[in-house]
Structure formats: structure tokens, C-alpha cells
Amino acid sequence: MTDRAVSSNLGLVLLLALTVVGAGAVVGIGGTAFEDIQHQTSVDRTEHAMTLLDAEAAVVGLGGADTRTVRLGRTTSGDYATDADTGWLRIAHTNYTANETETIYNASLGSVTYRTGGTTVAYQGGGVWRQQNGGTSMVSPPEFHYRGTTLTLPVLRVRSNDAATGETTATVSQDGELTRIYPTEVATDTDGVGAPYDVANPDGSIRQYDNPVRNGTVSVTVHSEYYRGWAEYFRTRTTGTVTVDDANRTATVVLETTGQVGAFQLPAKNEGVAVRGIGSGHSVTEFETSIKKDSGTFNNLWASFYIEEGDRAYEAVVEVPNGIGNNYCNGGTPGSETLAMDIYYHDAGTPEGVQMWSNDSIPSDSGPVQLACDGGDTVIEIDFTSTGQTFTYGGSNVDDDTAIDWDDRNASASVKPDPTTFDHSSDGEPRNYDYGDTQNLRILTRHYFAEFDSDFDLRVSHGPGNRGTTQIDTSASGGTLRYDTAGGGSFITYLHVTENNVTVELN
Predict the structure, then answer these.
(1) DUF7308 domain: from which residue to which, for each copy (predicted)?
(2) 174 CB contacts (<8 Å, ≥6 apart)?
């Protein structure tokens, strides 16, 4: 009886002990879970409040209102703060030919942050970011708008320092007038603290930033605690080159300019016009040129535009017959002579030979390919996008007077070229061509330009020999080249940048 009583009491004690331990464990686990839920709720609420702050700051910063107020709510374990000196944004334009970099803009961004435990929710650069467990995610996007080939970048800067805990309200106010950075008649840069000043050229004139942006690349670099979030956003908005520098905590996106669109001066011999970001397919809309005689001889002159990129080569060359170049505008008989013009194309990566198109009976006084007079000097005028000049497939007339050595590519007027197919979806293509078929200059120009990638140099050459600099007045020669630009998010044609300063007062 005694043993059973002792055993019963011992069992009761053990049961009570297990109950106490279990209850303590439940309370401990439940308390941790409750704290986690409370923390997550606080962060979620703050994200919502920061998103509202983002929207109101945009209204104020972009000039829609002078002041807006946002209730951020009560903090439990975290603190709100504003800092005018956190992060910076830099925009630079690197010239394609000279490899010189012009810093268009460079200034601090500032931020509004809420920090609790290991989590930060921040408003910066017109976006809201969340940093937690070593990673960064975007809550709402920054003010970086990329459409087609246009980048619009209103730089929203926080220009105040403040802090608050408990029930917090943010008052957003304009801090000065909107400043236009690009385009602008007067260039702006920074003196290290964000104040713009005029940038003078060596001759004392003031640089002008205007659209379209020509040559080279435009880069946007952000230095920030949230740089990885910026990098991911750059990747989603563009297909430009995005790089991350962990050591310097920066994210950079580089966009290529679409190069020369519009009027150009004739480059020096064997130099070129930069074609950047040309659209796929038959994207050339206008290509005209005027080549003016200089003090040297114009007899037997030939002039060409050519492209050599990788395995592909193209050349269009016109020849002025001997005897009419010098006296054409001084006692000659315009219209009594004819010009010759050839067009060549070859892709070494295909089994097809050189495609040759020719016309050796082009009237010299009229039409898309002709001679004209300017102050007594002879001018060669060519409209490469005219339908009024036709060419025949097969053969050539200009012989060896070309910039590219077509003999090395097995071009021969005595050998009939293989049939070829133009297989784009513009200008009546796909279409097959056999020896003796004809086609106009516009379609030939648009088709062969479309055979190259989005970036190439359209070079010029002329002869005979090396006397081109005395035969052609490059300063009075030039042309117009227009084309539809490529999409895909890696090119830039138009840049719009403004600086928009706000203060955020925390109460």
C-alpha cells in the first residue's frame, strides 16, 4: 500500500513538471512567433506608408503641389529618419569617336528611412526599397522612365535631415524650383555638393545639351545601400548593359546612342558616318548625298559609300567619265555624257558569291544620280532612296575603282552571279533575282543596309589614287541619313533630365 502511494505521488509530480515545461515552451515559441508577426505587420504597414509618401513626393517634386502631408503611422520598435547625403546619381555621356566622357549630372539623392531590427524600408530616388537579410527588393519603382529610345529621368532629391519615433507624420515641401538638366541651352554640372554651374568650352562659348543624343553611350550610375535593387530595376526596364560594383555599392546601366540621324558633313577619305541603333528590316527612310569638286581634277573621279562589318561587305560607287568632270560647269555640255554606278554586296559566311548591280548609262544632267553645278564647281548628287534609278543584276562597270577589293571576294563581270533572294518582309520581299533582272536604287539601299547589325560605320572613299583631299571639298560636301531606330531597350535617342528637390519634415 505504501509503495503504491509513493509511486502515485511521484507520477503526479512528474506530470506537473512536464506540464510546466510544456507550457513554458509554448509560451516561448508563441511569444517569438507573436514578435515575428508584430515585426512583419509593422514592416508591411511602413511599406504602405512609404508608398504613399513616394506618390505625394512625386506630386510635390514634379510641381503638382507646394506641400503634401502623409501619415506614416506609429512606430513600435523602429525609427524614421531623413538624410540629405545618402546615395548619389550620376549621368555621363561617353563620345563614341573621341572616347571623351562628359558628366551631365552628379548629385546626392538623399533618403527617408524606417529601420527596425535588421529591416530597412527606404524612399530614395522616387522609389521605395526594402532591405532585409542581406538582400534588397523593390517595393515601388524609382523615377526612371524608359520608352522606346527615350529616357525620362526626373531626379527626386530629399534635401532635409530629421528624425522621429512614435506616431509620425511627414510633410513634403518643394525646395526651390525645378532645374532642367538635359536638354538645356546652358550645360550644367556640379561642384561636388550639387550646385549647378555653367560649363564653358575652351573658346569661351557655353556648351549646349540638346536632343537627339548623338554618338557614344549614355550611362546612369546609382550609388546606394539599395544598389542591387536599382540594378534589378535597370534590367527589367532596359536591355542595356547593367553592371554592379559591390565594392563601391553602385549599379550602372549603359545605353548606346542611335548615332547620326539627319544631316552630316562628308567625312575624310576612308572615315565614316556612325550608324547606331538602326532598326531591323528596311529601316532607311532617307539617304541623300552631295559631293562637291575642289580645286583639283574631277576627271575620271569615282566616289563610294561602303560598309565592312565582319563577314559582310557592301559598296555603292559612282564614276564620272574622263573628260567631263572639270569642264562640266565651265563650257561643257550637260546631258551629253552619262555616269556609271555599281552596287556590290557579299557575305563570306554564305556559299553565295558577290551580288553585283550595275548601270552604265545614267544621264548626267537629271535624275536621282546626276551632276550639278555650284558656283562653277561640279557636284555629284545621289539620292539613294529614290525609286527613279534602276540597276541590272550581274556585271560591273567601274572596274577596279572601288574602296573594297572585290577581286579578293571573287567578283568578276565575266562570271554570272548566282541567283539571289531578298528575304525581308518589306518592299515586296521575299523576292528572287536572276541574272539580268532589274531593281530600283531605293529597294537596293534599304535591303543591303538591313543585312547588317544595328551598329556599323558607313564609310566614304574616292579616287583615283590618293589625291582625294584635293579633288573633293569635304567641308562643302555632305548628306542626310535618316532611319527608324531599333527598339529592344538598349538604345537611347532622347534624354530628358530634371532635378526636383523636396524637403521631408517628420513630426
Answers:
(1) 275-484
(2) 60, 61, 63, 66, 67, 501, 502
pLDDT of 265 above 50: yes
Least-confidence region, from 51-65, 235-249, 263-277:
263-277
Cβ atoms 363, 371 nearer than 8 A: no
Alpha carbon distance 179, 143 (integer Å): 16
CA dihedral 359, 363, 366, 368 (to 10 degrees): 10
14 pLDDT band, cuts 50/70/90, is low
- On the 0-12 / 13-18 / 19+ scale of CB atoms within 10 A, 404 is buried
b/e map of 163-174 (b: 16 or more CB within 10 Å)?
ebeeebebbbbb
Instruction: List the one residue out of 52, 58, 85 whose CA is nearest residue 71.
Output: 52
Place of cell 533575282: 433
According to DSSP, the β-strands at 455-463 and 272-276 are antiparallel
Say what the pTM is: 0.70
Helix, coil or strand: residue 447: helix
What are the C-alpha distances in Å from 292 to residues 118, 289, 301, 317, 341? 71, 10, 12, 15, 17
Backbone phi and psi for residue 137, each to the nearest 5 degrees, phi listed first = -130, 155
Checking 92-96 for CB contacts under 8 A at 24+ apart, the result is: 92/218, 92/219, 92/221, 93/213, 93/216, 93/217, 93/218, 94/216, 94/217, 94/218, 94/219, 95/215, 95/216, 96/215, 96/216, 96/217, 96/257, 96/259, 96/274, 96/276
Phi-psi bin for 306: left (phi > 0), alpha (psi -120 to 50), beta?
beta
Residues forming a β-bridge with 251: 222, 244
Helix (H) or strand (E) holding 157: strand 150-158
Cis peptide before 334 (omega within 30 of 0): no
